[in-house]
Design brief:
The chain has a domain of 123 residues: 3-Layer(aba) Sandwich (Rossmann fold). It is globular, with a radius of gyration of 16 Å. A five-stranded parallel beta sheet has the order 2-3-1-4-5, with helices on both faces. The N and C termini lie close together (10 Å). With 179 residues, it is an alpha/beta fold.
Length: 179
């Protein structure tokens, strides 16, 4: 477990698990959101994003969290381990809602100085509201990742599918015991 891709719906705990793996296994942590989102929530142009991800993954040992299809060949394709956090839709939507409201209340800056706002959260537009995005995209992520498990896309890697918070806790404990 030296090159790990952590995938799953927003709110599944990708960044939390990736930070844990980075600390416990001595891996470089790569948060794709930090490479993608520019100030003012402007997306990075895809060629620049791919170049940044590729450069970051030149290290021998890393853990990357995120689901950007534009770079999945780089992240999942180079991974020796893929961890799919496949938590229930209601749970990840609740987590995203709670996390977002806390960030708004604390005016917590995210990547490149961006902040979440109540206006964005309450928007019905999934491109603006992470809560709406999470609810709408969860079934798509589940279908995509389930297909990748069986179509050979992930055949090169060890795949760990965790379907509940309890399974995540148990897996983390097992990883910590072997670190």
């Amino acid at each position: 477990m030296e090159r790990v891709a952590v995938v799953g719906s927003p709110g599944a705990g990708k960044s939390t698990l990736a930070r844990f793996l980075a600390e416990s296994r001595g891996l470089h942590h790569v948060e794709l959101d930090a490479l993608f989102h520019r100030p003012g929530w402007e997306p990075s142009p895809i060629p620049a994003f791919r170049a940044a991800v590729s450069e970051t993954l030149e290290r021998d040992r890393w853990v990357v969290d995120g689901n950007y299809r534009q770079v999945s060949d780089l992240t999942q394709g180079r991974a020796d381990t893929i961890v799919w956090l496949d938590l229930p839709r209601w749970q990840v939507t609740w987590r995203v809602t709670r996390r977002t409201l806390v960030r708004i209340a604390r005016r917590q800056p995210l990547w490149n100085g961006n902040r979440e706002s109540l206006r964005r959260v309450l928007s019905p537009d999934p491109e603006r509201s992470i809560v709406v995005w999470t609810w709408q995209q969860h079934p798509k992520y589940r279908s995509l990742f389930a297909a990748q498990m069986v179509d050979g896309s992930w055949a090169h890697a060890d795949v760990v599918r965790l379907r509940s918070s309890r399974q995540v806790r148990r897996w983390r404990s097992a990883v910590a015991a072997t670190a």
